[in-house]
Amino acid sequence: IAATQPSTNWHLKENAREHHTSKFSSEELIVRRGQAFTITFNGTERPEQNLIFIAETGPKPSKTTKTLATFDISSTASKEGWSAVIQSSSSNSVSISISSPHNAVIGRYRLSVQSGSSSPASLGTFVLLFNPWSSGDDVFMPNKAECEEYVLEEFGIIFAGNKNHISGFGWNFGQFQGDILNICLSIMDRSLYYRQDPVTDVSHRHDPRYLGRVLSAMVNANDDQGVVLGNWSGKYEGGKNPSSWTGSGEILQSWKKSGFKPVKYGQCWVFAAVLTTVLRCLGIPTRTITNFSSAHDADGNLRVDEFYDADGNHLDRGADSVWNFHVWNESWFTRNDLGPSYSGWQVLDATPQEQSGGIYQCGPASRHAIKEGEVDLDYDGTFVFAEVNADCMYWNYDSATGKKTLIYSKSTEIGASISTKAVGRDDRVDVTSDYKYEEGSAKERDIFKKARKKLGLEDKFDPTAPKLEEVEQKPDIAGKFKVAGSLEVGKDLNLLLVLENLQSDAKTVNVNMTAWSTLYTRRRVNQIWKDSISVTLAPKEEKQFPINIKYPEYQQQLTTDKTIQVTALCHVEDGIQVLVKRNITLDNPGIDIQLLGEAKVNKEVVVEVAFTNPIDTEVKDCVLQVEGSDLLQGILELRIPPLKASEKSTTKFKITPSEAGPKHLLVNFSCDKFADIKTFKMVNVIN
Question: Which residues form the active site (predicted)?
Fold first, then answer.
C-alpha cells in the first residue's frame, strides 16, 4: 500500500438498507453481525495481492478473546469466522464484501488493511450489532413483524393503573435518535464488570444473556453510578418526578451531559423503558411487561405478609410488599446454558429491588422456566416467580403485645392481567397465561408446590398444613367495596361498603375505616379520611353503607400516582376479624391533540392541543411538554397561562416531520392541580 492513507467509501446507505440500520442518523457504518457489508477503498496497488484485514475491538484486542480477527481475501464468505471477498477492483480501488461471524462480539470496531510487508493502514471504524434477522444469531426472531416492533419501533405503550382499572401511556424509546447509540456503547464501558476486568467483559459481549444482565444493573444507579436513580418517597426535590418523563432520550442525554451522574428520578416503568431503548438500540428484541398486583417477596419464601392495626391502617412492617403494578422487560434470545425449551422470551428487570450476586441486577430468567416453577434455573427465577405467584397473608398486628393474628390468606391475588403492547397496533395484549397456569387450577397449585419444594420450603408454611397461629377460621361475614360513580381527579369519590352476614343468627359488627393516599407501590403517604360505624346484620342480611370523600378532602393529600387505598377492618362480636380493602387509581381529565393539515416530510404542520379545566377553581403553573421521534427534534416545552374554572385552553405549535411512516406524538400536560396528564397521537407522515 502506498504511504497515503486509503480513503474509504463505507456505502452507508446501501449497507444500512441491507442491515436494517437505516433509522440511525450516523456518519459511521452501523451493521449487524453474521451478514456481509461492502466497502470500497483506494490507495492500493495490485489489490488482489495478499491483502490482510484486521478488525479489532476493546482495549486489548486478542484472538483468544475473539476481539481481534485477521483475515485475508477468500473466494467465498466464511460460515465460521471473519472473511473478505473481492466484489470488483480497478487499477487504484477495490470493493470488498466483509462478513462477520454470527457470534461476533458487538461494539465499535477498528478496521485496517495490510498489503505485503508494509504496516497496516487504518480504514476507519464501524459499529457491529446483534442481528435478529439472521438465523444463526442467538437473538434470531423468525417473525419479521415482531422484529419491526421489538427492534425498530421507537414508540411504545406502557400499562399502569391497577388490575381493576388498567390504563396505558405512550413512551418514546427513541433508540435511533442522535447520539443514543454512542451513549449505549458507553453504558457498557462504565459497568462494574468492565471496570473490574475490561478484557473479559468485552469478550463476553457476543452473548445477549451476559449483556442483558449487565445492562439491567447499569440502568439503575445502585452500585455503579448507572443511568437512573430510583425514588419511591413521593418527594422528588432536586430532580424530575418519575411520572413526568415521556421518553428515554432526555434521560440518556442528561446522563451523558452531566458527566455520567445518575439522572433523578425513576420508578419501575422508567427503568424498564430505558432498558428497552438500550437493548433495541443494540439489536436485542425487547418489550416492556406490566404485572398487576405484583409481589416483592424480600425473604424468598414465596409469600407476602401484610400487617394491619385494629383501626384498619396498613402498617409498614416487614420488607414484603405488593405493588399495584410493576414493569419489567422481556428480551428474546436462546438459552444455550439451559436448553432449547427455555429459549425465547427472557425476563430482565432493571428496577433495583433485591441484590443478585451482590449487585442490583435481575435476570435473565426464562419465562418458560417461571411458568413451570423451575425456580432454581439461572437467573433470579425465585424472585420473578414470586412477583407473579406469591401467596398473600393478611395479619392483624397488636403493637402493644407484639401478637399477630392471621386474618386471611389468598393464593389468587398476585400476578394479574400481565400486559404488553400488541405487535403493530396500539392495543394491549394479555400474556398472563405465558407466566402461569390458570389461577386456582390444580396445575397452578402443583407448580407452586414444585417451586416451594425446590426452595426447601415444604415444611414451612403450606396453606394445606398450617401451624396453630396460622389457622384460618371461617369468617361470619363477607365484605367488599364497590365503586359508585366515576373515578376522576377533581370529582368526589363515592364508594359503597357492602357487608353480608353469612350466618343464620344476627351479628353485631364494629367497622373501622380509613382511606390513605399511596404511591403505586401501595406505600402510604397521607391519611385522607377515617370513620367508624357499628352495624347489626340480621341473619343472611346484606347491607350497603355509602362513603363519600369530597375532592377538597383528598386534593392536597393525593400523590402524583393518583392512588388511594381504602380499608375497613370489621370486628365481629364473638367472631374473627374481617379485612375489606380496595386500591383505587383515579383518572386524570382528558387532553386532546389535533393535526391541522397533512403531515408531510420536511413540511411544517400545525398541531393544536386542547385542555378544559374540569374543576371549579383556577389552575396555574401549566406546562405542556411534547416529543416524538422523527416528528420534532428533542423536547418542546410550552408555558400556558392560568385557566379559570371550566375554561378551555387551546395551544398551537408547529412540527416538521423528518421521515415518512406511522409516527407518534406524545404530549404531557401538568399544572398545580393535575400532574402529568399524558396522551399520544399516531401521525401518518407521507412523502
Answer: 268, 326, 349
Contact 438, 389 (CB under 8 A): no
The catalytic residues are 268, 326, 349
Rounded Cα gap, residues 407 and 576, in angstroms: 8
Q: What is the pLDDT of residues 119-144, one digit of tens each?
A: 899 999 999 999 999 999 999 999 99
CB distance 529 to 497 below 8 Å: no
Question: For residue 468, what pLDDT is reported?
Answer: 47
Domains of the chain: 7-129 (2.60.40.10), 144-455 (3.90.260.10), 474-585 (2.60.40.10), 591-685 (2.60.40.10)
Residue 439 known to bind ligand: yes
> Does the pLDDT value for residue 244 go beyond 90?
yes
How many whole angstroms separate alpha carbon 506 and alpha carbon 366? 53
The residue count of the chain comes to 687
Question: What tens digit of pLDDT does each residue of 34-80 get?
Answer: 999 999 998 655 555 679 999 999 999 999 999 999 999 988 887 78
DSSP bridge partners of 662 = 684
Q: Which residues have CB under 8 Å from 299's CB, separation 6+?
A: 319, 320
Assign 358 to helix, strand or coil. coil
As to burial, measured by CB atoms within 10 angstroms (0-12 exposed, 13-18 middle, 19+ buried), residue 128 is buried
pLDDT for the residue numbered 319: 86
Peptide bond preceding 210 in cis form (omega within 30 of 0):
no
pLDDT for the residue 155: 98
HEC assignment per residue over 574-622: CCCCEEEEEEEECECCCCEEEEECCCECCCCEEEEEEEECCCCCCECCE
| pTM score above 0.85 | yes
The reply, when asked if residue 389 is annotated as ligand binding, is: yes
Cell of 526: 397521607
pLDDT at residue number 473: 73
Give residue 2's Cα distance to chain centre. Answer: 53
293: cell is: 398486583
Instruction: Pick the closest to residue 6 from 96, 102, 93, 126 (CA basis).
Output: 93
Per the annotation, does 444 bind a ligand?
yes
Q: Which of residues 464 and 453 earns the better pLDDT score? A: 453
CB 623 within 8 A of CB 642: no
